[in-house]
## 1
Amino acid sequence: MRDNINFYSQFKSWYDKIIETFNFNPDMDREARDYLSQILVEKDPNWNVDEILVLFKESIEEKKNIFIFGCGPTLEISIQELIKEFGVKFFNNTINLVADGASVLLKEVEIPIDGLFTDLDGISQKEFNYANFIIIHAHGDNIRRIKFFKNAIINFRNLICTTQVKPCDNIINPGGFTDGDRILYFLKNLILPTQRIFLFGMDFGNIVGRYSKPTLNKKIEITPIKLKKLQFAVKLIESLLVNIRNKVYFVNSNKISKKFSYLSISDFKKMIKF
């Protein structure tokens, strides 16, 4: 199973560009990977990443439509519109995958989370324990957060961990850079050809949604470095979509790439059927 997800050799050229562009330290990324790997060794001896990957694959194959929620400024209005139209139980019929802090909003409105993809800087213990599966990413800037969540990581069974350097026995590298685009990279060889992907709050614009960080209470203008990260994410998704057979739609977002397919909320409502 891991061989279908590990994308290190193919993604390394992108990683090298990221390291050069942002002046990241790959040694710190390796340190984060190794620290998280050691924590996984302390888990229940019956825990096995391959078994969890199989369970995750089976869970996301259960429904036709996959919803991915990012932390962009359109997240709130999109969810409000859908709840108003269909009710919260609408989301029981979809696979709901969430990027980091977007999980805060989904928990607030009681939308179930099938998978939470996080580097741990946008969530609290509440969101950690709310998701069915958690996919934790280790990088050089979040070692402190990994330490903070150590006990939760040890005690949570449906856990998968990722890195952006060479994978090891219990950590995989699916490719991807930000939490949002990493979800698509993770899914690329797991989902069925008939499944459709809809992305909400994946805006990649110059405004940051208030769920991007726990310290925010409103939308703010993006910082130059954050904008550059999102621009990388756009390029990565453009590159990935060429090789994905599934229909992928950005819902209620401004058009930032000619290579993406966009839907308004009204068009989405007309399309979605169960």
## 2
Amino acid sequence: MAISARVDSYLKDHGIKYQVVNHRYSEGAYNTAVAAHIPMKKLAKAVLLTDHDDKHLLVVLPASNLLSLKDLSKKLDRELRFVQEKDLSVFFADCSTGAIPAIGQAYNLSMIWDDHLQEESDIYIEGGDHEALVHMNKEEFLKLMADQPHMIISERGAAHLKETGAH
């Protein structure tokens, strides 16, 4: 139960203050949030996309939200598609399958993050296995993402509505 050495080194090298939150083994954002006892909107989910030129983009959004690939492609003027899970190990060799850290900089990946994450006082990021999260406060998250492009790239989904009691 530890975070990826690459993630740990990147955060330490860039002076990002964080804590490791261990939880029981879980797969998937919803199960991870439940296992770690955190709201899904505070869990920054990473999704790797690619375009027709084989240029990759790591997209970071609240786990409670829904990403519209069509809308994002239009906003970025690129036709994006999801990288298949079986191909993720090429980029995240030090991570368990499906446990992608939302820190593209550590993996030399271009990235974009969702402005909805700025609404939270704390952010949790997958640590690279299925048993540990990286926790940081909003200020540290914004410091980590300071040089990365961001905009509204997702919509609040059913998971968010369930958490807030809204319909």
## 3
Amino acid sequence: MIDTHTHLFLEQFDLDRHENILRAKEAGVQKLLLPNIDHTTTEAMMKMASDYPAMCVPMMGLHPSSVNKQFENELKHVESMLQKHGHAFCAIGEIGLDYYWDTSFKEQQKEAVKIQFEWALEYNLPVVLHARESFDDLFQLVESYLNRGLRGIFHCFTGSPQQAERIISYKTFLMGIGGVVTFKNGGLDKTLAAISPEHIVLETDSPFLSPSPYRGKRNESSYLPIIAKKIAEIQTCDQKELIRQTTKNAIKIFQGIS
């Protein structure tokens, strides 16, 4: 399995990061993909990738929640990291639009996304997209770049069947499915029942969004089999086949991580 989205470099893991990685390996996780947040997280992320080069692969991007009046300075940091270490990154991420907490910087978030889309195309990297209360605007941005070859993942997808079908229609985007799929009233089961494993990848988003029965506690990559098991149940397919297909999907979109 590949955990396509884990923030294992955050301080929540400072006391037992190595043990987390060992548990992930024991659970069958072969790769951990690390999405950046902003300049405050880059050093820890890069150190983790350096300490565990066979398992951890970093991304570079600016999270929408870190977009504010000084977002140009944050983007300069992203650009500098791409110029220095572009070959080391598997994606431009985590980027996107988040209107849940604050809508004061909507236009700045959109501008940051467009700039980072250009870098994704320049460096031939996929994008890992964060969408919260913002699907319509993000769809419009993505669709304006599809004819130029933009590809990527809608991370932590929790949308409707109609939104899933729209993403599938792009042909170059997948949906990242995590712990929310195990939530009793999450509603994601209805969406996933209508699509096939060819359109998804597995993720934890740890330390956030732990799957049941660990909901409310710190998430970790060793919980990925719980997510795979639930998806296989919903899609009435063999769990091993689901894992094989989602791993194949991840390797294809994150070129060179295998």
